[in-house]
Write a structure and sequence with these properties.
Layout: H1 3-37, H2 45-58, E1 61-62, E2 65-66, H3 77-84, H4 90-94, H5 100-113, H6 122-133
Antiparallel strand pairs: 1-2
Helix pairs in contact: 3-6, 5-6
């Protein structure tokens, strides 16, 4: 075999080695990307049981109160949870206690300025739930006058 033939053979062997190495690296990279984007593939079934337990805990109601949010268990509660607690806590919702008119104005303001989506039919359900379970409270009112008090004179 001539020197030229030997060089060609070595070049072919090197090219094959480079191609094989490139294929292995590409497969390894694709595998790593796949594993990183699908971590649940390697988790045991115990995690799905834990997810079921966590889901049950999320919906747990004790003494008429939704434990996770503190909302009163009533018709429309889960619609409120699904639409309102995505952006803020349930406390922020319940502490505001407004009339239906004010809630509708507030929802419109959130849609115009805070990127709240169109609630569609859910808006009526949400407003009814809030007005029924968290009605406006009269606040800032003075207490009633004291009666039947025996006043005494102060000395100067």
């Amino acid at each position: 075999m001539s020197m030229e033939e030997k060089n060609v053979d070595e070049l072919v062997k090197s090219a094959r080695t480079i191609v094989r190495t490139s294929i292995i690296l590409a497969l390894a990279t694709m595998t790593m990307v796949f594993v990183n984007t699908n971590p649940e593939l390697f988790s045991s079934n115990d995690s799905s049981e834990n997810e079921d337990l966590n889901k049950k805990d999320r919906d747990l109601i004790e003494d008429g109160i939704h434990v996770r949010t503190g909302l009163i268990d009533a018709e429309g509660m889960f619609v409120v949870i699904g639409n309102c607690t995505n952006c803020h806590s349930a406390k922020l919702v319940t502490q505001n206690r407004m009339t239906a008119e004010r809630w509708n104005e507030t929802i419109k303001w959130m849609q115009e300025t805070q990127n709240l989506w169109d609630l569609g039919e859910n808006q009526e359900i949400i407003v009814n739930y809030l007005v029924t379970n968290y009605p406006p409270k009269k606040s800032g009112m003075r207490r009633s006058n004291l009666t039947d008090i025996e006043w005494y004179e102060t000395e100067n």
